[in-house]
Design goal:
The chain has 458 residues and is α+β, with helices and mostly antiparallel strands. It has helices at 2-23, 28-34, 71-83, 112-125, 152-155, 241-255, 283-292, 296-314, 327-340, 364-377, 441-456, and strands at 41-49, 55-59, 88-96, 99-103, 133-137, 171-178, 185-188, 196-203, 208-213, 221-228, 232-237, 264-266, 274-282, 348-349, 361-362, 403-410, 413-421, 427-436. Strands 2-1-18-17-16 form a five-stranded antiparallel beta sheet, with helices on both faces. A hairpin with a 2-residue loop joins strand 3 and strand 4. Helix 4 crosses helix 6 (241-255).
Length: 458
């Protein structure tokens, strides 16, 4: 009787262990099937052992798909190599022969406080009684507001025009205040920079506000439509970045009682001019909004700054009096960098530095091979986000300290690329792209996390 009991117990444990093995098998095909993505989507996955270069898993790894913001990792790396780890985005005043020259540094982190600090230093070092004119050197990057392939709903109202004139993210706050009787919506603009509004808002129980701008007419007019239920703050990108920057500069002059009654002129800093005041942010500081919080504006600015340095080094001349800090030159830099790294450039095509454009395309195998190169040559993990950080907040917490990644999201599209230590302690690189137009973003991120589980258990 006892033998029969143990025999039955063995069979039960065997069957139970088989069931649990099936449930927790971490099988890629099972995960893809569970999420029902194959029928409606293109799923591309590539995983490689970083030490042996052995392919560990692949699916549709050669298909060219849109990378979304995962591209930022690779454009940032090319820019980092070109500019160097010690590069500073410096905004500085120079002095020569009774004239001041403000050299813009296209610093995406520059704030009004920074400008106040700059002007405070300037006042200590220069007697304005001897200053005749103030010039601005804005040749660091081009004034082209948005790269190719960007649609209006990509940049408005979230991304300010790309420009060498940058302060406070080139955005201002506008307050929508309901009257005491809640029958009127008042638009309050506290900033010196002003918009013209067409107010078509209706007061309702729930808020659903549409912010619209007519780009067929070059006007600073915004239409507000939809419903509003309570007081609301809107953060809006400015249209005239030059005017916005100069107004902040004039405010700083006034704060420190600097009298300059003439207008600002525009000219490059001459040879022999002496630097008299400066403020800066490092490339490491700029990397945080780009790689951890996926800021498109900062990514595009950095890309053009690196494009200028590349163009100047290669002897590429500007058109007329324009800057060489263009997206076109930055793309030349990008292609040269990865071509020299030995990567096959047939499997990637880019038109911007942030991944916003629908025209960008790459395959996951190329992305993984590029990550391997960046890990060996740039220590790229130092700049990447980890589990429960940035755009990975509240995701993959069990991999804290063991994953370095970059996310990407468009409507109907999600991507994740990075480096990870597996359960066995092996370091692997991976690329995941899901091009899907029928699933919400949360469902695609859940799928990515399940695939990461599979990779972790390889």
């Amino acid at each position: 009787m006892l033998k029969k009991f143990f025999a039955l117990l063995f069979v039960f444990l065997f069957i139970t262990s088989e069931c649990f093995a099936a449930i927790f098998s971490y099988d890629f095909s099972s995960v893809i099937s569970k999420h029902d993505l194959d029928a409606s989507s293109t799923v591309s996955i590539y995983v490689e052992d970083m030490k042996t270069s052995k392919q560990l898993y692949s699916k549709n790894e050669n298909k060219l798909l849109n990378t979304a913001s995962a591209l930022k990792l690779f454009t940032f790396a090319a820019a980092l190599d070109t500019l160097g780890k010690d590069y500073k985005f410096e905004t500085a005043f120079y002095y020569k022969e009774s004239n001041l020259y403000l050299k813009l540094g296209a610093d995406p982190l520059l704030t009004s406080d920074d400008i106040n600090e700059l002007v405070s230093k300037l006042k200590k070092n220069v007697d304005f009684k001897n200053v005749k004119y103030v010039y601005i050197d804005d040749k660091i990057i081009s004034m082209t507001p948005y790269p190719d392939g960007w649609c209006i709903d990509d940049f408005w109202p979230s991304i300010a025009p790309i420009s060498p004139y940058i302060v406070d993210n080139n955005k201002v706050k506008v307050r929508l205040i309901l009257s005491q009787d809640k029958d009127v919506v008042n638009i309050v603009q506290d900033d010196k920079y002003r918009f013209s509004f067409i107010n078509q808002l209706e007061i309702a129980d729930n808020s659903d506000i549409d912010i619209l701008k007519n780009y067929s007419a070059m006007q600073n007019i915004i239409t507000l439509r939809g419903k509003i239920s309570d007081d609301t703050n809107l953060i809006l990108p400015v249209s005239d970045t030059k005017y916005f920057f100069i107004s902040r500069l004039e405010e700083a002059f006034g704060k420190y009682q600097i009298r300059y009654n003439d207008k600002f002129y525009f000219k490059e800093v001459p040879q022999g001019a002496k630097k008299v005041a400066s403020v800066h942010h490092t490339i490491e500081q700029v990397s945080e909004p780009i790689l951890k919080y996926s800021d498109n504006f900062s990514a595009e600015v950095l890309f053009r700054v690196a494009g200028k340095k590349y163009a100047d080094k290669k002897g590429i001349k500007p058109y007329g009096n324009l800057s060489t800090g263009t997206t076109k030159n930055a793309i030349l830099m990008f292609n040269d960098y990865y071509k020299n790294a030995g990567l096959d450039m047939r499997y990637i095509k880019i038109v911007d530095g942030s991944g916003v454009s629908r025209y960008n395309a790459a395959n996951t195998k190329w992305l993984v091979q590029a990550i391997n190169y960046l890990d060996k040559n740039l220590d790229i993990k130092e700049y990447m986000e980890g589990a429960d950080e940035g755009t990975l907040k509240r995701r993959l917490r069990y991999l804290k300290g063991d994953i370095w990644a970059k996310t990407g999201t468009h409507n109907g599209l999600s991507s994740l690329v990075g480096i990870m230590k597996t359960r066995k302690g092996n370091e692997v690189s991976f690329g995941i792209i899901i091009q899907c137009f029928s699933k919400p973003s949360k469902a695609l991120k859940a799928f990515e996390d399940d695939i990461v589980d599979c990779i972790f258990n390889l």
